[in-house]
Fold:
Amino acid sequence: MKKIFSVLSVFLFSISLYCGVGKYKVFKKDKYIGAINYYEVNEKIYFDLNDAVKILNARKDVYSVSSRVIIYLNGKKLNISKDSVNYDNLESINVSKPVIIRASRYFVLSDIFINPLFSKVFEIKVDLDNKSKIMGIYEDINVTGIKFFSYIEKTRVVIYMSKELKYNTDVVGRSVILTVFEGSYITQNENLNVSDGNIKDINVSQDKKTLKVAINMGENYGSYDIFTLKDPDRIVIDIKPKVEAEENRIGKVIEPTSSASQSSATFVLPDKIKKNYDKKVIVIDAGHGGKDPGGRVLFGKKEKQINLEIAKKVYELFKKDPNFEPVLTRDSDEFIPLYERSKKANDLKCDIFVSIHSNAHKNKNENGYEIYFLSEKATDPWASDVADYENASVEYEDKVFDYTGAALVLHSLARNEYINEGSKIAAYITKEISKNTPFANRGIKQAAFYVLRGTYCPGVLVEVGFMTNKKDKANLDNSSVQEKVARSIYKGIAEYEKQHK
Ligand SMILES: [Zn+2]
Structure:
């Protein structure tokens, strides 16, 4: 009897193992394109690798010894190893048993394909209906991210798009419903919990032709503004509190979240989270330092030295003003990589970042000062030369830091929100330098400086004068002229803060 029972239990066990085998019907834009074999283990769905590759129009490499699988899709690589998945060398996630082998066939965990990273990287969205065993494939993703930022005076919702899309808004009860026509988002449904008083949550839902973003208001909701911005295309909705509710929000710390917070690929974008409501944090960055001398000159002080002397003077002026809390990125002749400078500013929750440099040119007649604010596109060829030159500090860094990866791309998306502010600050400083110093005004320019790109606050870069010009150089080396420059930077920023309170 005992033996019969154990034989029976083995039999039952085998049945429970094999009950999860079958096919998913695959539809591309509602058109049936074939079927894909699956295998179910512990309530996890695995797809037959050969079928998956065929359905996705991909190629594959299988390394049977290490049971590593690489799928090539749209010129990118999905690298699946024993316990992790790497999306085109950009992001890795830990996955237990991503690949199983049954009857000498490879099966790949379905979660890998429905992860938002998959659609973000490969621009193909895979949607599964596990009940009716249907897979939907969408190749035209044009809404690449939905994020919100809690500021003190408003909550900003940003819809990032790969091209301009038509939209409209409706107010239904306490919800603003944004409909994006022909919008295709990286996931089918998403709920973002905001709970900052202005917004309760944001509900994203995709149907065949449109993307709906329902912003459900919180108890403080007063009004909203909607507008679009370019480069990249995005729809921005600012939700503002009722005027009387404003006081309650002051000093409240609100943690920002990004749209894909469940995955390790999330970039939590620090924003205007105030640790000290009274004082504005001004991060003063003396360009170069240590083994990176900056612009080279034969006589007199080196660029790194001039920058530091001016930066210290700027620091002293802010220190005396109770409205500000100044911080130096370096206060001695030491080498600090560019990413650490912006990291320091971000950790301190900077309000304004100002980087101080001195210029150089092979034409000794070039003279005067320039103020830059961040942009991904330079205003003129000269502006891009200056950016390349200042960005070259990267070459001195020992550690290899990925300045070009997805992290930076996403960071710079966030940075776009600060570009306007940077241009305003530049205008205030320019006015003061022109009035109070001997340097000629070469204008306000835009260029892509690394040190500004990684910083989550409005920032400017001041090229005070030309070390290669005799007159400018004498002024740059002169302590009382440096003092005038420092005072102009201080006054410009103080005036900006006064006007934009
Ligand atoms: Zn420099």
